[in-house]
Write a structure and sequence with these properties.
The protein is of the alpha+beta class. It is 17% helix and 53% strand. Strand 1 and strand 2 form a beta hairpin. The longest helix has 11 residues.
């Protein structure tokens, strides 16, 4: 079975400087960009629900 790790970086504009939030999601299947976005919204504090930038990096890990 494989595990997929997604490292997320979200940004929201607050005043003059953007505020960044980083998190991790683990899944047993590859996730679509829409699934990743929904998971990020589910995990983010309320002020990040309208974030304007979402970056993610996928890392696949095999299990024996």
């Amino acid at each position: 079975m494989h595990r997929y790790h997604y490292t997320l970086n979200a940004a929201i504009e607050l005043g003059a400087a953007p505020d960044r939030l980083t998190g991790t999601i683990e899944a047993h299947h590859p996730m679509t960009p829409q699934q990743i976005r929904l998971a990020a919204i589910d995990q983010a504090p309320a002020q990040y629900l309208n974030f304007n930038e979402l970056e993610y990096q996928e890392r696949e890990e095999g299990l024996d």
